Amino acid sequence: MNKFIKPSESALTAAAKWSREQTLLAFQFYCETPFGQLHGRNKKVIQLAELIGRTPDALAMKCVNIASLDPKIRESGRTGLSNASALDREVWDEFHADWDGLVEECDALRSYLLANRGELVAPQDDEEPADEPDFSGETRLALVKQRVKQAFFRRAVLNGYGEKCCISGVSDRRFIVASHIVAWGDDPSIRLHPGNGLCLSAIHDKAFDNHLFSLTDDHRIVLSAQLKSTKDAFLQQVFWSVEGVPISLPDKFVPELDFIRRHRNHMNEIVEVSR
Fold first, then answer.
1. What share of the chain is helix, strand, coil (3-state, %, to 5)?
2. CA 99, 72, 194: angle at the middle one, nearest 5?
3. What is the C-alpha to C-alpha distance for residues 156 and 169, in angstroms, rounded to an integer?
4. What interhelical angle do 137-160 and 20-32 show, nearest 10?
5. Are 71 and 253 in contact (CB under 8 A)?
6. How far does the chain reach from its first CA to its final CA, in angstroms?
7. C-beta atoms surrounding 194 within 10 Å
8. Which tens digits make up the pLDDT trace of 98-146?
């Protein structure tokens, strides 16, 4: 992000108490990683643990402790999830209060740590090179920041849903999208919140973005009047059969009820205006 944050000298040690910097990066990693991969043998766990001065097993355990704060994880009945610290809860609350700011801070911190080891700050595995003009200065920095944030949101949402469309089950990454429930530009405070995302196929994403269908409070599909009355045989085949069917829910960060209601209310408002 062309911006570094230098941590304190004591922030990256294996002391008994984790530092805020270590916990921030552990939380970001938790968001972006499937629960089943939070173990000390995971290559990415090993890489991050080395970067922040912890052992892979300690990092994996920290992520599991953070998971205990996630209502969806608790409801799953998993055991051994009761060791979250006061700092874990503090970082959890910080992220939920300022997703944009904390994602920026994590990226700047990670960039510093990599640069301090003489390593290039390269895109992560699932990030594609940006196809954009060669801007410079503030314009380029703004573009880089936005791309970093969008990449975080995509990883967090897709990994939560097991990289499968929550309606069709399609899993080819070329056809799945991290779709916002409340649109990116409508509410900056939640645009990176994984609970504001759905993993959808490209066609379902397009329809959802245009409020052609929404969700009920119990995550069932509800079609708009436009889709219910469509004469298009393909759209009938794709959408009519799923009305009232519950979506597949993610392992963590279940779609927030408030966000769903805002989307559904917008769909209903469109119907009223069109009458």
1. 55, 5, 40
2. 25
3. 18
4. 60
5. no
6. 47
7. 25
8. 999 999 999 999 988 988 877 765 555 555 544 445 545 556 566 778 8
Among 238, 229, 246, residue whose Cα is nearest residue 206: 238
Looking at the DSSP bridge assignments, the partners of residue 212 are none
56 vs 62: CA distance, rounded Å: 10
199 pairs with which residues across the strands?
178
For tokens 């066609």, what's the residue? 203
Inter-helix orientation angle 86-97/99-116, to 10°: 120
99-116 and 43-52 helices, crossing angle to 10°: 80
8 A C-beta contact, residue 194 and residue 157: yes
Residues paired with residue 243 on neighbouring β-strands, in sequence order: none
Query: Burial level of 31, CB count in 10 A (0-12/13-18/19+)?
Result: buried
In this structure, what is the dihedral angle of CA atoms 182, 185, 191, 196, given to the nearest 10 degrees? 10
The model's pTM: 0.85
